[in-house]
Amino acid sequence: MTRSWVLVHYWQLLQLLDIVLYCFLFLLLSTVLLFTIHVLYEKYEDKVDAIGKKAIKEIKKQYAVLDEKVWSEQDSKRSSEQEEGLKNAVKFVSMQHDDDLWEELVEQCLNKPEMVWKWSWTLYSCQT
Asked: Which region is the signal sequence (predicted)?
């Protein structure tokens, strides 16, 4: 029994030593990289800055393409959905013949226009 007990403790000691060595290695490599990157940047600062400016310019160009192709389409879909929602809201309020409801619709359009189409879809779907 004592032999297995000693082996277990050696195993635990080795695991602890392994963790300590990994932490030391991480700190050593981090320090070396930080100093190396700093020295290399100081030496090649002009070239690095030029490449960085080109990269930023390319990123901005790609963002403009993404904005034009993807997000503009989503905005147009959203605005058409909002227009359809407003039509449904007007249709719903017309069917109710209620002046207070008309006032509520106008107030919602003025204060929270983004909510009108959501509200109208809810009301219209409850009617149909």
From this structure: none
